[in-house]
Amino acid sequence: MKLIKLKLASFRNLQNIELVPGKKFNVFYGNNGQGKTNLLESIYLLATMKSFKQAKNVELIAFGSEFALIKGIVERDRVSREIALLLEKQGKKAKIDAKIATRLDDFFGSLNVVLFTPEEISMVRGGPDLRRRYLDRAVFTCDLSYLAAFHDYSKILKNRNALLKVGDGSGIEVWTEQLIQAAQLVIERRKAYLAEIGKLLQGFYSEISGNDETVQIEYRLHGVDQKAYSADPAAALADALKAHAAEEKRRQTTAIGPHRDDLYFGLNGRSARHFASQGQQRSFVLALKMAEIEYITRCFEAPPVLLLDDMTSELDRERNQNLMDFLKKREMQVFITTTSLSNVAVEEMEDNKTFRIKEGRISE
Ligand SMILES: Nc1ncnc2c1ncn2[C@@H]1O[C@H](COP(=O)(O)OP(=O)(O)OP(=O)(O)O)[C@@H](O)[C@H]1O
């Protein structure tokens, strides 16, 4: 999977861009605030329809403009397609080969991306919502039907919460039953994904850290007994909801379910969130991303495009070198941003293209 052309109009500070990236390493350099991250954000949007900064459309459209346009020509198995995303203040419209994309699988899967930014260390350190967001997006990439399962669950949860807010609890059983069913579909898919990623994680962590530390990744049900869940998921969820009934009445919201679950990241048998150093946490996230790259490569039989935002300044020399070795071995297109070319070992990157970004303009 490769992005062979990118056109931007009125996207943030990138007013008018036409770019022909190379098939392997693409390095974008420039001072702070010139548009490097904006460029990666546009590619991410083209793949996922979402901003990795959770930005609203009005923030993505250049100041003073009414809309922004992101257009890319992508190539997979020697077939190229044009993806276009029109961002208006009220919404987004996607077109594939000039036809409006109406179904999910019209749009998704033409371009897959994996993103690594310095901020993503907060996935280890921060609250569970960041880990759930990562997990849901990762599961969805290879399993489009996950989105329907996730939306079903969210709808039922919303209805159940609405009833908890207004009523005396009557009629809740119907929603509880539906919630239990929908929750299982979400949890099972998340767990299945983690089982696969878990198998790959250790190898990549060792590769990146160059030591023999051990890593673990596990799904953590919130307020539900893990063993009871393995034996009988529906009964375990029902029991947990019963046990939380008083709390639910008091707080007027559903107390357990996938919307509260978390991921556990372990390092040498201890919580990476609480005990790992910054460097170890960074290696953990990077290993997770490498595992995701491998997973996507297997399910699409084509590697995703990797977006590395200003990451070279974040890793030490040895980890950097290990990352470079990983990238060199793969037929994967990579977009790297950096403040200075001296931060990245361009001379080691076979088949590289460098671009300078200044005040929203890109030159080779
Ligand atoms: N909607 C918008 N319209 C015009 N300019 C915008 C818009 N949103 C952000 N910008 C501008 O984009 C610039 C930030 O770009 P970006 O985040 O890509 O910087 P960067 O080159 O990655 O810098 P750093 O190295 O500091 O991360 C800022 O100058 C900001 O004012």
From TrEMBL:
Keyword rRNA-binding recorded: no
Binding site for ATP: 30-37
Residues in RecF/RecN/SMC N-terminal domain copies: 3-356
Keywords: ATP-binding, Cytoplasm, DNA damage, DNA repair, DNA replication, DNA-binding, Nucleotide-binding, SOS response
Entry-linked InterPro entries: DNA-binding_RecF (IPR001238), P-loop_NTPase (IPR027417), RecF/RecN/SMC_N (IPR003395), RecF_2 (IPR042174)
Subcellular location: Cytoplasm
Record keyword Phosphoprotein present: no
PANTHER family in the record: DNA REPLICATION AND REPAIR PROTEIN RECF (PTHR32182:SF0)
Annotated family: Belongs to the RecF family.
NCBIfam families documented for this protein: recf (TIGR00611)
Main function: The RecF protein is involved in DNA metabolism; it is required for DNA replication and normal SOS inducibility. RecF binds preferentially to single-stranded, linear DNA. It also seems to bind ATP.
The name this protein goes by in its record: DNA replication and repair protein RecF
Species for this entry: Geomonas propionica
Lineage of the organism: Bacteria, Pseudomonadati, Thermodesulfobacteriota, Desulfuromonadia, Geobacterales
